Amino acid sequence: MPEIVLVRQPDVHVSDADREAARRVLFAHIEGLGEVNRKRWRNFISTLMRLDAGEVATIKTEKARSHPFHRRHMAMEQQVFEAQERFENFERGFRDWLKVGAGHCDWHPGPKGGVFPVPKSISYTEMEEGEMREFHDAAVAFLRTAHAQKTLWPHLAEAVRAEMIETILGEFGE
Q: Which Pfam families match (predicted)?
C-alpha cells in the first residue's frame, strides 16, 4: 500500500476563487463511492485545503489488482522458468532469485556479518496494483541483463541468451 506524504508549500497563496475551483473540479471528477465515502472524500479535500504552511498530511492508497495483468505476469514467469536451465524449483529458487534481482526484497544483517536478501511477497493481500506493475517492470529489466541471462542459460553464447529472453518477453508484449 503506497504512502504519499503531502506538505503545504510555504509562500504560496491560493485565492478563495482558485480553492473553490479546485474543489469543484475534484468533486465533479472523483467522488467517494456511497454516502460514507462521499463524506470522507469531501472532508479529506477540505482538510487539505486548510493545511497551514509546512503542515504535513499522509495518504495511504490502494488500487485493486488487475487480474488479467497478474495472470499475464505469472504466465511470463512460468514461461521463463520452463525455458531456463538453472533452477529446479519455481517458488523457492527461480521466483526468489527474480524478486531479489528486481530489488523486491528486504536486506537483513547476516549471522556472520554482511547482509542477505529476503524476497518480499507479491500476493494480492501484500501488494496493490501500482506496486505490482513496478515489480513487473523491474523484473523484466532484470531479465534483460547479461547477468540474469547468463544465470538462466550458462551454456549458451551471449547473443543466443539475449535472443532467448527477448523471444519469451516478446510473447507477452514486453
A: DUF1367
